[in-house]
Amino acid sequence: MKQKSLLFFVVLLAVVLLVNLISSFFFFRIDLTSDKRYTISAATEQLLSKIEDEVSVVVYLDGELPSGFKRLRTSVEEQLAAFSAQTGGKIAYSFADPSQISDPKARNKFYTELAGKGIQPTNLFNKQQGGGKTERIIFPGALVSYKGKEVPVSLLKGTKGTSPEQILNQSVENTEYELADAIRKLTVTQKPQIGILAGHGEPADIQLYDLITSLQSYYDVFRVPIALVPDSSLKNLDALLVIRPDTAYSETDKYKIDQFVVNGGKVLFFLDALKIGEISENGTLAMPQALNLEDLLFRYGVRLNQNMVKDLVSARIPMVTGNTGNQTQTQAMEYRYFPIVNTFAKHPITRNLDILYFKYASSIDTVKAKNIVKTPLFFTSPYSKILNAPVMVSYNDARRDPDPKTFKQGNIPLAYLLEGSFHSLFANRI
Question: Which of 238, 350, 393, 418 is the most exposed place for a label (fewest CB within 10 A)?
Answer without folding.
Answer: 238
